[in-house]
Amino acid sequence: MSEQQRPISFLRVPGVEDVPEGVQRLWEKSREAFGFIPNVFRAQALNGAQFEAWWKYFNLLVNKEGHLTNAERELIAVVVSGINRCTYCAVSHGAALREYSGDPVTSDLVAVNWRQAELDERQQAMAEYAELLTRAPGSVDESDLEPMRAAGMDEHEILEAVQVVGMFNMTNRVSSALGMAPNHEYHSQAR
């Protein structure tokens, strides 16, 4: 099946006439910035108000100036998405990690097994915590934050890392449940 024929979601994907004005504006900004509309924006817009609420928090947490760098947030996103086997997020955020890090080899390794990537102490601490919170959230306790503290992370950075792990666990589940297909543009981005 060609990329054009493959559905981007198991559910109906709304047209521009079916979504709120705010979603229409976001779609247009995406087209101007990236040259395409991310499929996640199209598929989740079926419930426009819910999509806009999710996007507002996601954008604040992942795309705005924060306590972590863009590359660090994308590293966490790719670790979580790889563990959860979320195709859409592993591919799309793998592309973002390649772009922010300038390192396509490490980005690809992180998507499959972050332990095989050459990560520094801080990156390793974030990846290890992201894996623990993703695989065994009921086992997490205060001592599990220690490697991030030992790597020099302050409480604001640790909280942001935890929030990014949580966001991607939720987003991975939505994307996987709806069978979201990544845009083909992501595969060649930053290579």
Poorly predicted ranges (pLDDT <50, ≥5 residues)? none
Envelope shape:
globular
Major β-sheet annotation: none
Helix content, binned percent? 55-70%
CATH C-level label of the largest domain: Mainly Alpha
Whole-number total of structural domains: 2
Question: What's the rounded overall pLDDT mean?
Answer: 96
Number of helices: 10
SS-based class:
mainly alpha
Q: Can you count the beta strands?
A: 0
Strand content: under 5%
Quaternary structure classification = single chain
Order of helices and strands: HHHHHHHHHH
Rg, rounded, reads: 17 Å
State the end-to-end distance: 25 Å
GO molecular function: peroxiredoxin activity
Organism: Janibacter cremeus
InterPro entries: AhpD-like, AhpD_core, CMD-like, Uncharacterised_peroxidase-rel
Pfam families: CMD
Which descriptors apply to this entry?
191 residues; mainly alpha; Single alpha-helices involved in coiled-coils or other helix-helix interfaces; AhpD-like; 10 helices; oxidoreductase; CMD-like
Write the layout of secondary structure elements.
Layout: H1 21-34, H2 39-44, H3 48-63, H4 70-83, H5 87-101, H6 104-113, H7 121-135, H8 146-150, H9 155-177, H10 185-188
Task: Please outline what is shown here.
With 191 residues, the chain is mainly alpha-helical. It has helices spanning 21-34, 39-44, 48-63, 70-83, 87-101, 104-113, 121-135, 146-150, 155-177, 185-188.
Question: Could you explain the architecture of this structure?
Answer:
With 191 residues, this protein is an all-alpha fold. It folds into two domains: 16-63, AhpD-like (Single alpha-helices involved in coiled-coils or other helix-helix interfaces, Up-down Bundle), CATH 1.20.5.810; 70-177, AhpD-like. Helices cover 64% and strands 0% of the residues. It is built from ten helices and no strands. Helix 4 packs across helix 9. The mean pLDDT is 96. Keywords: Oxidoreductase, Peroxidase. GO terms for molecular function: peroxiredoxin activity. This is Putative peroxidase-related enzyme.
